[in-house]
Structures are given as structure tokens and as C-alpha cells.
Amino acid sequence: MTRFIAAIDQGTTSTRCIIFDASGAVVSRVQREHQQHFPRPGWVEHDAREIWHTAQAVTLGALDAAGLSTGDLAAFGITNQRETTLLWDATTGEPCGNAIVWQDTRTDRLVAGLAADSGQDRFRDRCGLPLATYFSAPKIRWLLDADPTLRARAENGEIRFGTMDSWLIERLTGRHATDVTNASRTMLMNLSTLDWDPDLLAAFDIPRAMLPEILPSSYVYGEAAPFRGVPVASALGDQQAALFGQACFSPGEAKCTYGTGSFLLLNTGTTMTRSERGLLTTVAYQLENQPPVYALEGSIAVTGALVQWLRDNLGIISSAPQINELAAKVTDNGGAVIVPAFSGLYAPHWRPDARGVIAGLTGYVTKEHLARAALEATAWQVYDVVDAMNAESTVDLATLKVDGGMTASEILMSFQADILDVPVLRPAVTETTALGAAYAAGLAVGFWPDIDAIRSHWQVDRRWEPTMTADRRAAGLRQWRKAIDRSLNWED
């Protein structure tokens, strides 16, 4: 009897397999990190072979940990780091080099050239995205320009492109495919037609022959040959998967995931909302034989990565959880404000010229104040995104559902509720990214009957209510805005 769903969560720093039961509870979890490659300043790469081997290992490990076999699984779901770009040989399946990670900024000059005549929003009407190094299309173009032999082979269908979902789907099933959420992050898919757009392909000079088939998010892609034919029945970009796992199925519902970066998505229903304030219009999910559901997204590049930087580069802490111990020793930031624009600012600013700053330093500031300022930097970046969403949505955000590793920080979550002036809710099952992939896969194979059944599983684990005075909130915002201004125009 197939009693469980397995989700492969292929993230930026690690790959996990989590097995869920019919109530959406975690049965087992195995995670393994993969290496980060930094060949030059601003360049970030992953070895796709390592990721594939890791995905297999954690899946077998999760089955073993639960005492299960593949026969106990109804389906696999896949969720993945988005925008990370890989090319591979269509015949051998061998990668043509390392994957270029979403954080990588090597395409900055290419992006600037494409934006020179018509601006950063040149393609926004078609794909919902501004021109930025973040997305896949400039990365594909860079790879084809860097090796002319690849371009000729790509035009002949000998080279394939994919984000990490496509890489795993093909390794598992042999099918070259992606889902609408991941395709919507390439800058090559038309949001209205849900197909590769000829004008966008021409503008980026990318052959259509190398692109995967676009399919719904909840859909049987094929059978996983390495795992005795268990159906691979969903694919969702990680942030859309978290929205799904948080049961944000109605327009106006939103979630924020706090990880390496942080990502806030607002369900806008089956109608696209075109942003004029630096947000992204993206596909939230699509169920089989149903119209797509869209979302507004605010993408923040550096949140948890700032804590890692304090640990690895400055040695202020020896482990990530220590940030909270340090921050708890002081009652405020001591006047110090950190803007972690390590690779520019993402939403809602979209300023690639920005760089990180620590403003307001005096002799009074200690490492404890810097620890608190680092946590507050995450909350203020989320505030900027919520502020933009409230300006564009018909209804202001009433509550914020949260997930991700940083939600373990009482200081951060309490401060987030304070500056947003709305309750912040953390669910009982915090593995919402993997859970969303599992839910979508379960719907595709009939493991769960409908989204109402999924919605009934969502429960609150922790709730933070705002307590900050309006005057203190306004003073903090003024301080934050001044620090943002000082981060701009750093790079020519």
C-alpha cells in the first residue's frame, strides 16, 4: 500500500529528501550539503553531478530512516533552487560545465547592454521580470557566447538547458521538462501563453531547440527509473512550493520564506498583477487541466547569508544559532544598521550598483549590536517588500505566514511583527517547501483529493503579535532608509 509521499528539495546549499504521511506530517528527513564554487569574485557555481548523486543518496537515506521501501511511496515531488542554470549534452546527459547559480553576477555587463536602450523593464510586460543577473536567460546567453561550439550544438538540439528541476526530472524519468513556475523565472516564458516566447528568445539569442517542455506543476512527469518506477508527479520552484505548502490558495494570502535569501509571495489568483514598484509577477502554481494561479513576489538576495558571513568571514559567531544569543544581550542595535547588498539590492529596489554597508558606527557599538542589526536587516528588507505589495494590492496584508530556518529566531520574528504591525504566524510543519512539492505530487496521483483537504492540515505553531509603538517604528524606518541610500551608487 502506498502510504507516503517523498519530496526531493534541491536547495542552494544542500539537497534534502523528506517523506510525509497522509496528514502532511514528517516521517523522515535526510539532508546533505554540496560544495559551493567561487571561481572569481561574483561568480557562484555548483557541480550538477554532485547534486544528482546527493539527491539519490538522501532519497535512499530517507527511505532507510523511515524503514520504508519504494513500494511504500505514492509519488515523488521535486522542488528546487530557481534560476540556477545548467547546460548538458542531450545524448550523454553529461553537464557542459558547472551550473551558474542564481546569485552569480557575471552577466552584469550583458544585462546592462540589454537594458541600455529600453531600460530595465524592457521585457516585463511579457515575462513579468526586470532585466537582472538573477534570472536564467542572461546566464544561458553568457554560456553560449563563452563557447561558440555550444551555440552551434544547441541550435541542432544537441545541448539542453534546464534549471535544477529539469536536471533531476531528466535524470529520474528521461523526460526533458520543466514546470510553469520554474519556466516563469527564466525571462523566456510568456506569462499569458505559458510557452516560450519567440520575441524573448530572439532578444536573448537563445535557440528554442535547447529548452525543455513546459508542464503544469502538479502533473505526472514520468516514472523514476532509479526508484522502481515511482511516479515523479510535481515540480515547483522552491518559493512557489513554500506558498503551496503554506496553503496560500486564496488571493491575498502570503508567505515569507527566510533562508539564504528571503522571498515573499502574495497569491493574486488567476489574474496577473503587473508591478510598478519593483515586485516580480510570477506563476504561483498550476494544477493539471486548470488555469495557472499567479503571484507577486519580492525577492531578497541576502538574509541568512548575512549570518553566514558574520560566522565565516568575520568570526563573530561560531554557529548560526549564536546570532540570537549575542543579539539577546542588548536591547537595540546601538545605532548601527547593516544593509547586506553583497550582490546589489533585489526587490523592490533592483539596484545592481548597491553594495553592503554598515552605517551608524560609533565607539559604543559592540558585536552584540551588530548581531541584532543583522537580524533587523532581514526584517527591514521584508518590510520594504510588504510596503510595495500593500501599495499594489487591493487589500493590505493582514497576517504573514513564515517559514525557513531563520524563523527559529524569536528576536527576528518578534521584530518582524513589530515593524509590519501585523501578526506573524509560523506553521506546525515548518518544512513548507518540501511539503508543497509533496502536496502537489499527491494531488496529481490522487493521494489527496483536493486543495481543501490540504488546507485542513495547516496549523499554527507560534504566533507573534506586534507591540512596538508607532513612533519607534517610524524612527527605525528613517534610520533604515538612510542606510539604504548610503549603499547605492557604489559600483560604477
Task: Kindly describe this structure.
With 492 residues, the chain is of the alpha+beta class. It is built from 16 helices and 23 strands. The chain has a seven-stranded mixed sheet. Helix 9 (238-245) crosses helix 14 (432-444). It starts with a strand and ends in a 5-residue tail after the last helix. 52% of the residues are buried.
Largest sheet: 7 strands, mixed
Structural class: alpha+beta
Calculate the terminal CA-CA distance, rounded to whole Å: 61 Å
Q: Tell me the Rg in angstroms.
A: 22 Å
Beta-strand residue percentage? 15-25%
Number of helices: 16
Which spans of ≥5 residues are poorly predicted at pLDDT below 50?
none
Mean pLDDT: 93
The total of beta strands comes to 23
Dominant shape: globular
Helix content: 25-40%
Strand order of the largest sheet: 17-18-16-15-21-22-23
Topology:
Layout: E1 4-10, E2 14-20, E3 26-33, E4 45-46, H1 48-66, E5 73-80, E6 86-89, E7 99-100, H2 108-115, H3 124-127, H4 136-146, H5 148-155, E8 159-162, H6 164-173, E9 177-179, H7 180-183, E10 189-190, E11 195-196, H8 198-204, E12 213-215, E13 218-224, E14 230-237, H9 238-245, E15 254-258, E16 262-269, E17 280-285, E18 293-300, H10 304-312, H11 322-327, E19 337-339, E20 357-359, H12 367-392, E21 400-403, H13 410-420, E22 424-427, H14 432-444, H15 451-455, E23 460-464, H16 470-487
Parallel strand pairs: 1-5, 5-14, 9-12, 15-21, 21-22
Antiparallel strand pairs: 1-2, 2-3, 4-7, 6-8, 10-11, 13-14, 15-16, 16-18, 17-18, 19-20, 22-23
